[in-house]
Amino acid sequence: MAQSYEPDARWPSAVLHAAFFLLLGGALTGFLVRHPGDPLIPWIIALPVVLTLLYVLGPTLGGTRAWSARWQHAWLGLIVVVWTVLVLLAPSFAWCAIPLFYAGLRTLPPRAAVAVVVVLTVLVVAAQLRFAGRFDPNLLFAPPAVAALATTVFLQAQRQAARQRDLIDDLLRTRRELAASERREGVFAERQRLSMEIHDSLAQGLSSQRMLLQAAERVWEGDPAKARAHVRSAASVAEHNLAGARRFVCDLAPADLAGDGGLGAALRALAARESGGPLGVRVHVDDGGRAPELPERVQSALLRIAQGALANVREHAAATTAALTLTLLDDRVVLDIADDGHGFAPAARSGAASGLRGYGLPAMRARVRQLGGALTVESAPGEGTVLSVVVTLETPHDQESGAVR
Q1: Which ranges does the record mark as transmembrane (predicted)?
Q2: Second label for 333, Cα 20 to 30 Å away, from 144, 166, 204, 266?
Q3: Are strands 332-339 and 280-286 parallel, antiparallel or unpaired?
Q4: Model confidence over 132-152: pLDDT tens digits?
Q5: Which fold does the domain 263-405 belong to in CATH?
Q6: Are 89 and 40 in contact (CB under 8 A)?
Q7: What are the boundaries of each domain within the chain?
Q8: For 336-357, what is each residue's pLDDT tens digit?
């Protein structure tokens, strides 16, 4: 009974229960009014009381563990037997069959429920014809029509409810699959971010330290002062790398961006560290006196790109000069990294520039793609390389338009 209903279907159940009790009470009152001295009155009163108790027992025990399918069938059978006896004694109680139709349809499988409805309908027709005392076509055809209509409506509603439950289950399963897919994508994106951070900070720093220490080892005997200078430079790089690693663990911005000078000061600090030995690095910032406020993620990404590009220039390009040019406009920012190294033929070595190979250039492209920008590489054998990054900035007008949309 009630335990098989969804929460939003409780009100039809309440209406059916109320209709049953109203029909039962009306039939009892009508019999007592029409037959005040009938000897069957004690039975006519006792049987509705028993039928009421049985009918109430179903919803009461419906939520308990003991209310198994076997007990439901037994409960329905007792109700039908008591109602049948009552109808044989007083045919006016036949109209109580309509709520019993739904009790059978809710409790039994479809075929068994239809069989019970047919039996109840036959009893209703027989009781009404007996009560009328004459043949009436309306009494013969009206109850089956009502029973067929009620059964069709109920079974169709059950089918729709089952389809809705299936749709809800599919939706929940799809949401779970989507959430799992988003988690996998999030894990992949985080791994990619970590790999880029490690490559552009820790790995490049370790590479610089290795080169400085190797240079110190080569000149240790012949020029101790120069060797000590290389060692001091390596120690400075190690100190900066340590600070970057600590900030990286805490998920903060690069260490060079911790000050008040912004991206321009961070690029100058980077150039000072990378300058030394055969390579000299210059920095030029062109803001035209109208520099926009760069988002933190843009500053961090451009600084990491510059770090990766200079590390590749030092390690692979055999360059003596490199230049960082930062151009700040109202709607975009441009970062150019140029060197005078040996260069390469882009058509022959797609994906590498001045030794931009391995993970370096893909990491840069990934960073630029996350910013919605563009990265281009121009190079030719013996003519050096120019790497250019353009990132479009969101203007206040764009932000307001996005908010309106």
Answers
A1: 14-33, 40-58, 78-105, 112-133, 139-157
A2: 204
A3: unpaired
A4: 667 777 767 777 787 787 778
A5: Heat Shock Protein 90 (3.30.565)
A6: yes
A7: 2-135, 263-405
A8: 999 998 887 766 555 443 444 4
